[in-house]
Structure prediction request, 243 residues.
Amino acid sequence: MKMRNPPVNSLSLEFLTELLISLEKLENDKTFRGIIITSDCPGIFSAGLDLLEMYGRDPAHCAEYWKAVQELWLRVYLSNLVVIGAINGISPAGGCLLSLSCDYRVLANNPKYAIGLNETLLGIIAPFWFKDVLVNTIGHRAAERALQLGFLFPPSDALQVGIVDQVVPEDQVQSTARSVMAQWLAIPDHARQLTKNLVRKPTADRLLQQRDADIQNFVRFISRDSIQKSLHVYLEKLKQKKG
Ligand SMILES: CC/C=C\CCC/C=C/C(=O)SCCNC(=O)CCNC(=O)[C@H](O)C(C)(C)COP(=O)(O)OP(=O)(O)OC[C@H]1O[C@@H](n2cnc3c(N)ncnc32)[C@H](O)[C@@H]1OP(=O)(O)O
Prediction:
């Protein structure tokens, strides 16, 4: 599955909806056993959640958006398919969450690429379920530092901390992802799926038990004047960077 939402594969409501529909089709088609998620935008896996869906929007829109973000996470995280991330570009925040929700992550060895939950750099916070997935992946202490400091790990650090499973030359990302897929598909589906569910369900359940409260919490948080101001400053910084 090649994500194509130029210029930066930001996860807009429309794009999330498209991804959800595609994933549902694949999940329900029993001829598919696995998917490789990668990007069609050069140098960018995904710029994460679309800031324009959270900035200057009314509460109803923010609630609708957040429900779709939750939905995408649950669908990828709990998928019965083998999900491999072929991360061929930078992958901050929501892009990192998408990567962390895969069963295995292969990152291209390019010093321009980085991956991490950088929310604090925007003046916002990673929701508890983003945090849970990071803690499950890199451990409590590493996650504590990474989250507070908004670390975006370049490839060698990403491998060292375990936020990705493999770093390979850029031209080998897709072939490596395919070899990894073959290895995972060698396991009988029912055994692998039940085991995946056993490991991941408690984390997903934490959100499933309080989805509405999580939406309300998001809407309250994102609507605060101070948070809207932080998003404005960040968006301006992105514009100024262009010169
Ligand atoms: C209680 C819980 C509360 C809140 C939880 C919220 C959780 C949030 C999660 C997130 O995912 S927030 C988003 C985090 N993402 C980022 O920080 C990445 C920001 N973008 C960049 O750093 C760069 O754009 C880049 C991805 C490195 C690409 O750089 P490049 O130089 O190639 O492109 P440029 O910066 O010029 O961007 C092109 C164009 O795209 C717009 N853009 C970029 N990122 C986003 C985004 N995430 N959402 C919306 N729009 C984005 C950028 O402004 C440019 O627009 P323009 O052409 O109109 O100027």
Observations:
- The chain has ten helices and eight strands.
- The CA atoms of residues 92 and 116 lie 5 Å apart.
- The radius of gyration is 17 Å.
